[in-house]
Structures are given as C-alpha cells and as structure tokens.
Input
Amino acid sequence: MADGHITYTTENLTDAVLARIAPDAPERTRIVMASLIRHVHAFVKDVELTPTEWEQGVAFLTELGRWCDDKRQEVILLSDVLGVSMLVDAIAHRTHASVSETTVLGPFHRENPPRMENGQHLSPGVAGEPLEVRVVVADEDGKPLEGAQVDVWHTSPEGFYDSQIGDGEEHAMRGRFVTGADGVVAFPTVMPASYPVPHDGPVGRVLSAMGRGPMRPTHVHFWIKKPGYRELITHIFKDGDPFLHEDAVFGVKASLVTDWDAAKQAGGAARLHYEFRLPKADS
Ligand SMILES: [Fe+2]
Output
C-alpha cells in the first residue's frame, strides 16, 4: 500500500462496503443493506461471476423493468417463480390451524374491480362449465363477519385473465363483493383453467433456461379485507388438477385445495365452497 491508498481485493472489499453504511442510518436500513451486500458479494464469489455474465445480468434487470406497465408486472413474476414471494408470505403469516392460510397475490389483481351484489354472475357472457362459488368469511371462532370486502378474480375457461384478452381494458371474471350478516359471498361463474404464467418475456427465458414449466394449477383468487382483522390474500385450488405439484410460483398449500366436483356426482354444477377464518389484526 503506497501513499495511503487502499487496494480493494476479493478479501477486503465486502468489509469495505459494509463499513460505508453510516452508523446513524435507520436500524432496519443498516440490517437489510448489510445483509444484502454480504449475500450479493458471497453470490458473486461463489459462482465467480464473469464480466460477460455481469453484463447479461444488468441487461436482464433492465429488460425486466421495460416489460412492466399497468397490466404486466414482470418483477413480481420473477419474485414468484424464484419462490421469493412465497418465502416472504410464509415469514409474514406463520399462522395456526384455526385461521385460513395465505398465498401469493400474483400479478393479475386490479384496483377497483366491478362492485358486485351477492348472487350476481361474475362472468356474464363467458361460455364455459358453470361453477357455483359460496364462501363464508368468519373470525377465528367461526363467527360470521358482516361487511367484509371480498375481491375475487380468476381466468377464463381458456386460462386467460381479462387483462390478457383483447386490449385488456375490459373487466371480466372479477368483482368486489361485500358479505352480509351471515358472512356469505355467493355467486355463479364459469370454471377457470390451469394456465401458464406469462412466459413470453425475460422471466419466461429464465424458466426455460432452468428446464422449468410455466404452469399454474386451476384456482380462484380471493383478497378479503375487514377492519380490525388481518387481510387475507389467498387462492382456492381445484383438487385433481395435474399441475398441483408443479405450480410455477410455489403457491399451493394443502389447506387451500378443495374438491369442486363432488356435487357433480349428484347431477349438480361444480361447486367451490370454503370458509375463510381471519385472525384479529394484532394477533
Ligand atoms: Fe392466478
């Protein structure tokens, strides 16, 4: 070391970067940034990242941003297929048996979906197998919760969300219901389908590079909000779907898989019935 100049090496660079975090930076910022720096440096050293691979990484992240707009969220998709979204969810919701389990939000929720009344058809004019949905929103002890807001969304029978059909502006197969005194939201709709996550962009290339498929098993999304209770973001999956064990985003949990076809044996329509149980907000 000459003239007091410092040479940064593979041995001392990580500590040098960590030392630049100001001691009076907010505590959470220090914890998160220090861990991020340590892990990213360890990753680069572990794989001995080459300059060409670094350039490819930069190009990939740049492209990821370019693919995003109000209908396409490639960053959430990357987080989903790498299992990061489910890991965050698992840490945030270490729930116990008496409350419903959560899963990923996914990239297809839309703000301000059409307001629907109980009994109103969720998918008018959409051809497909009829599906009767009836869910109850209750507290941890099973007492029905009145006035809970329930956003519901699912794919067409061909496996497309409304934002992927035509110009994507029209709302279909989605709605916002509010529970009555019995905690119930019930409506007819059409049977959704298993579908590939959007794989025509940079995340699709990552999946195929790893030899992975893009499919998600058949499900209906729910986002339930009731003041004083913890929000519930989840799906209900259709039992028997061939993709239950290879969900591209790792969102399946056993408690969220139900038999939709049981009523068909008695000549009725397919049925999705579920009771959601929400814990108190601060529990
Ligand atoms: Fe979905």
In short: The pocket of fe (ii) ion is lined by residues 106, 108, 219, 221 (CB under 6 Å).
